[in-house]
Amino acid sequence: MVMSGTPGSFARSVLTDRHPVLLRQVADGHPYPPDVRRALDALAEETAAPAAADATDGPSMGPLPTGAAFPDRELWERWGVAHYVGRKSWYDVPFLWAENWFYRRLLAAVGWFGPGPWQGVDPFAPVKRAELAGAEVAAELAALDGLDALAPGERDQALLRAALWGNRADLGFRLTADAGTTPDSAASAVLADDSPALWRHLAAAPPGTAAVHLIADNAGRELIPDLILLDHLLNTGRAATAVLHVKPYPYFVSDATTADVLECVRRIGRAPGRAGETGVRLREALGDGRLAIRTHPFFCAPLPYAAMPGDLRAELGGATVTLLKGDLNYRRLVGDRWWPPTSGFAAATAYFPGPLAALRTLKSDVVVGLDAATVAGLDADSRTTGTSWRTSGTYAVVQTRT
């Protein structure tokens, strides 16, 4: 299991480097009143790194505030609060649990759940809006006009790759990563590419029956290509229906919510050319039910997907294929463990209730399904460059189990 306090680890750097930057960004993003700013400062102090780089001691993980209604309190009690909160430091618990509790505590600090004037105000909205209004989004939407010059198979792959590399737009990753590195650089590579199997699986479904589910990761520059891919699948008949699963509330800096989906659809629809046409189709698909938005409390759980509740398992089990986007979904899919990277993807995901495909840019240590020669070469490069191939965001995988 990946632990949050392992010396020199990526997990520890998220707590020591990324979270303090994020808390400052959130505090600067809205004109929060003094009580909210004090709560954010207290969370920063509580989660601060121990003085020694190899220490795992420090303040215990604090609880949610008392005296207010928290609709998910019972869920978090089932998810393990009693095992960690008030008993363990932030650097002495599983990384997946620590990250999730940090974001849940952040939402409590800013009053998301209320009652009060800041109830339902997305603390990450300023950075989401800025990204959506940026020149990069405009250029990526304009590039859709070039799809007409591609053969159908090339068009399929172009849109799938756009959804794959869109995962690198994760705003949390960009808090500490070099945003100047792009997946178009020579060093970028898809380390495992099962996309042919995905297309064959969709083609094998009886006409008019395929239901594609997509578990989204980030809003903005990642969600836009996800929506465009779903439109493409619907428009070409690869999918008769599509379901987009998002978070029930803001989470992990840029995780997509229903509000983010609607903002992205509007942004696509405002663009000229092929993008604007796509936006019109997306609105129509949402309106007539061919494209549905779903959410579930478990998407904010600090647990692997192997622990998903029965209702979510039943829904995903009815999909022709489920596309899982992004790094966090990947960690939850295979389990946030120090797997040997040559471990089998199919074996690690055998519990999943239906066919699936993971589209993921590598931004954390967990990875499976690679061949030994690839791993050896990547490890050698990392020793030379001093940059971990597992966490740089330079590499990606498309892994399927049908």
Automatic annotation (TrEMBL):
Keyword Hydrolase: yes
Keyword vocabulary terms for this entry: Hydrolase, Manganese, Metal-binding
Cofactor(s) essential for the protein: Mn(2+)
InterPro entries assigned to the protein according to its UniProt record, in alphabetical order: ARMT-1-like_metal-bd_sf (IPR036075), ARMT1 (IPR039763), ARMT1-like_metal-bd (IPR002791)
Entry GO MF terms: metal ion binding; phosphatase activity
Top-level taxon in the UniProt lineage: Bacteria
GO biological process, alphabetically ordered: DNA damage response
PANTHER family for the chain: DAMAGE-CONTROL PHOSPHATASE ARMT1
Family that this chain belongs to: Belongs to the damage-control phosphatase family. Sugar phosphate phosphatase III subfamily.
Protein's name according to its UniProt entry: Damage-control phosphatase ARMT1-like metal-binding domain-containing protein
Organism: Actinacidiphila alni
